[in-house]
Amino acid sequence: MVDQTGIRSKRVIVVDHDDATSQLIAEILEYEGFAPLCCSSGLLSVENIEQAQANLLILELGLGDPSAALDLLGELRRNVHTLALPVIVNSTDDRLLKRLAEPLRDLGCVALAKPFELDDFFLSISLCLAPGRSQTQRLAC
Asked: How far apart (Å, rounded) are the C-alpha atoms in residues 117 and 141?
């Protein structure tokens, strides 16, 4: 299914430390016409993301040390095939998102605090996947 903006039917990788949350987000995305792929954080790698040919990554930072996620995001930005991949980062830890606001912005990520409103979630997705956006603009979605 493709809507008039061409946003739907896009592949979205969903990563969350809680399988139930990943499945819920995936079901919501699928209902809206996206093609979600759930991935455990242990299997998440630049190579796997590249192979999936995803259009968007939704990555939960979790409650632990966020350095692994920041390292992965840095690798994505250094890889020519994933350089412009839009990323939405989320966490229930509002303080963590505020502390990492600048590095996440520098890495071209949108940050959403959980729980988030579905309208805010889909607005972030729409901005990240808007047709006609250049690679530079995608980094600042």
From this structure: 18
